[in-house]
Amino acid sequence: MKKSFRPYLAFLFMGSLLTFSACKDEEDPEPDHEHDVVTTVTLTLTPSNGGQPVTATWEDLDGPGGKAPEIDQLVLSANTTYTGSISFASEEAHDDHHHAHDLTADIRAEGTAHELFYFANPQGLVTFTKTDKDANGRPIGLETTATTTAAVQGKLRIMLKHQPGTKSSTSNENTGETDVDITFDTTVQ
Amino acid sequence: MFRAKFILVLLWQLLLVAPVAMAQEQLHLDGEEPEQDCGLTLSGKVLDHDTREPLIGATIYIEELQRGTLSDEYGNYHFHHLCRGSYTLKVSYVGYEPLTSGFRMVSSTVRNLSLHADAQQLKAVEITGSRLQEQAQATETLQGRELAETRGLSLGESLKKLTGVSSVQTGPTVSKPVIHGLFGNRVVIMNNGVRHESQQWGNEHAPEIDPLNAQQMRVIKGAAGVRYGSDAIGGIVLVEPNALPDSAGIRGEIALIGSTNNRMGTVAGMAEGKLRQLPLSWRLHTSVKKAGSAQAPRYTLNNTGFEEQNLAATLGYKRQRFGAELYYSYFHTKLGFLSSAHIGNLTDLENAIGRERPEETGSFTYTIARPYQDVTHHLLKAKAFYQTGEVGELQFTYGLQQNVRQEYDRHRNTGDRPQLDLDLQTHTTELVWEHKPIANLSGSIGVSTIWQNNSYANGTRPLLPYFINTTIGAFASEKWRKDNLQLEAGIRYDNKSLDIKRWNRTEGVLRPSYTFHNFSGSFGALYDLGYHFTLSANVGYASRAPHAYELFANGLHNSAASFERGNPELVSEDAVNTMATLNYHSNLRLNGELSLYYNTINNYIYLQILPDYALGIGGAFLQAEYRQADARFWGADLNFDYALTNRLTLNNKTSLVYAKNRETDSYLPFITPGRTDNTLRYSFENGTASRLSDSYLALGGLYVGRQGRSDAQSDPVLAAPDAYFLLHAEAGTQLQFGKQQVELGIVGSNLLNTSYRDYQNRLRYFADEMGRMIMFRIKVPL
């Protein structure tokens, strides 16, 4: 029998796989976070009788837990009607700068699968009426009219619901998946 | 409540079994009565004359009666209902000189038959068969008919056929094996001889293995760290494909599987062969599966379709002293996730729990929409063995695996990007020397390495950090056997270093690194008590280093509305598992096995839901954190067959698991409830002239108790669901069309279309389990 095949050679070859397995390019995780996660909500209310717009921002860059979110106070004037708009952004904090990606247009484009809900406590603190409509004629709530009456202190809760396939004439704030659920301390003076 | 019901079920079983056991005793007594003419039993072992090793599958033939039998896996044989008289016994076994002996039968007798190795035949015949594999630790094997009945199911679902094995589920499509209440990283899965390395930490990550390529699946229960790695605290699952053909020629097989309910269709094909000129053999196996939305009895489980594509190719070269094998397998699956279980925050979770049925039910579809998982697993294996003279065999195995897991959430406008995109690459090597018996002692020593690199794609969720895991281990295990006693002992040491890279908002890239020293050991004894009883006991120690996920998890779990956080302070968990097994085998009527176990785990790592919520922009979330506590697991497995008649057999499989946090004396979450499955099976007598063979019909019921050992502390979100009972039936046959053989089978599960929820299904908050399903299979060898 000819001895051309040497088993130990095969073992040597396979053993070399061991060493070769230990080299792999060293790469580091990017200082980045998950894309398209809402980190910042900005509510802008412009008095319809002219005057300075009021803005309030709710921002949480590192997600639930971790650093506490930064929440503005919302200060409104009594007996005033405002034109409201709300924007959503995904901010990615890099070493020395912020890089924001606006998500409001995406929500509007997918209006048939989204709806915003505004709840004031106490009721009547500020009343929101949704003025924009999706392709099916259902309200979205990115554009609103807000009305105040008496001077009072309270809380404004804003919810963005993702309702793919479930948004309908009977859907409400309990339908679908919650994307955003935030509360602003609000003063009407 | 649960307990009462369970005891009732057990009592019912005892009532059923007690007369059986008595009848059994009666049978033995009868045998010893000399007046009794035809109730005698002849039994014993067939042994190798020199080594005293039992011979498996030897033919024993009584010439006068023209009755024959084969020795079983312990080398035992038996003839029942013999009459008094003189007989001639002929024993034959490949590689041994045949034995003929005459004897007189007066009473029931035990005769051990020892055969001499045939020197001439030994040269001609290559003995590839395994020696007796029995071990002191409880093992169960799924093969043959039972395995065939699981064809079409996932690996996790298939293994539920075994006593003491259940599964952790995420909806109808994801199922992970649970052994004695332990799962995930505590159960090592060996796929064709290579440690399966994927993202096992996730309960919703099913093993990426095609069960259709397996010829048998073996489960070793309890701490078994010595052979494959110290982390096998819960046990080991061995998935083994068929051996390559050793006779020249080409053959193949086609199998078709279809089911009602999710309208699953599977096509599997296999071709294998061996060359005539060279000792080279090969096999190709492929399977393709597609299923649509599963149906619960009252509604459709929206978006629960899945698809799977598999390919496996093997090439083997084998000479007498040297052999090598190259194996490659590809697994890809895309599986939908119940859409209503993808929720935003705690309020959504409360809403979902409050609903009678899921928010979205939809109608049947094969389309898989977001949320879904897309997972690809590659495995390349190279293996070689070399006979080191007459004393043993050297084996080397190298495995390269890549696991790419992409999870697509139900976000708005994210294009085609996944939200979770993990890439795990693993190289494993193992060098083992198995030595042949030296003075009753046989065993093996070996070294193994694991090198693993995990990363995620930029811009996806950093749920798990980058890490490199380097593990080097060495082990030795020996088995000593003499007469009726076998002793075994083993020891292992693993050195694991874990280098983590994670990005932190304030501090940049952090590089924590860990070194773990893990020992593992086992000692077992197996004693053949005679009278068909074997008693075995085993003490195993295993130590598992925490996984990178348990140390540094950081992210949102959508289906649980929980924000999961790792604990960088975790240390290794250590388990001491004591198990005793009594096996009653090779009897005419009753055969079975009872195992009792007691498992102490110190520093048991578990995910605790915290009482305070985390506030994020999406609202309130549950917070869950990895913690450690000393725990205790104990329980029992019972499995027996009772032949009511020659054709009708009752099979029972019962398992009980209990667990407790020893520090706080409280319950642990997610522990398997007690379960018992009873099946009546009727085997038809198919005459030799019949076109049918191996025909059978079976009907059974599975009862799963309510997990009574849970409370508001262990399950703060929702109390454990009620007990349930499911009816199942199976039928199968082999058809002969001329020279063509066809294997047919039908399996029906949840026949009464019962609506129920399972405690170990993570989606029990959201939806019912699958309703009635009938699965058809046909296998045609070519």
UniProtKB/TrEMBL annotation, chain A:
Record keywords, A-Z:
Signal
Which top-level group of life is the source organism from?
Answer: Bacteria
Name of the molecule in the record: Type 1 periplasmic binding fold superfamily protein
Which first-to-last residue range defines the signal peptide? 1-24
Q: Where is the composition biased (Polar residues)?
A: 165-175
Has UniProt tagged this entry with the keyword Signal? yes
Which residue intervals make up region (Disordered)?
A: 164-189
Automatic annotation (TrEMBL), chain B:
**Chain ranges of the TonB-dependent receptor-like beta-barrel domain:** 319-747
The protein's UniProt keywords, in alphabetical order, are: Cell outer membrane, Membrane, Signal, TonB box, Transmembrane, Transmembrane beta strand, Transport
KW ATP-binding (keyword) present: no
Q: Which InterPro entries match?
A: Beta-barrel_TonB, Beta-barrel_TonB_sf, CarboxyPept-like_regulatory, Plug_dom, Plug_dom_sf, TonB-dep_rcpt-like
Q: Does the keyword Coiled coil apply?
A: no
Domain TonB-dependent receptor plug: from-to ranges: 132-236
| Pfam families named among the record's database cross-references | CarbopepD_reg_2, Plug, TonB_dep_Rec_b-barrel
Q: State a GO cellular component annotated for this protein.
A: cell outer membrane
Q: How does it sit in the membrane?
A: Multi-pass membrane protein
Q: Name one GO biological process term.
A: siderophore transmembrane transport
Q: Where in the cell is it found?
A: Cell outer membrane
Molecular functions per Gene Ontology: siderophore uptake transmembrane transporter activity
From the UniProt annotation, give the residues forming the signal peptide: 1-23
Which family does the similarity line name?
Answer: Belongs to the TonB-dependent receptor family.
What the entry lists under PANTHER family is as follows: TONB-DEPENDENT OUTER MEMBRANE RECEPTOR, TONB-DEPENDENT RECEPTOR NMB0964-RELATED
Q: What is this protein called?
A: Iron complex outermembrane recepter protein
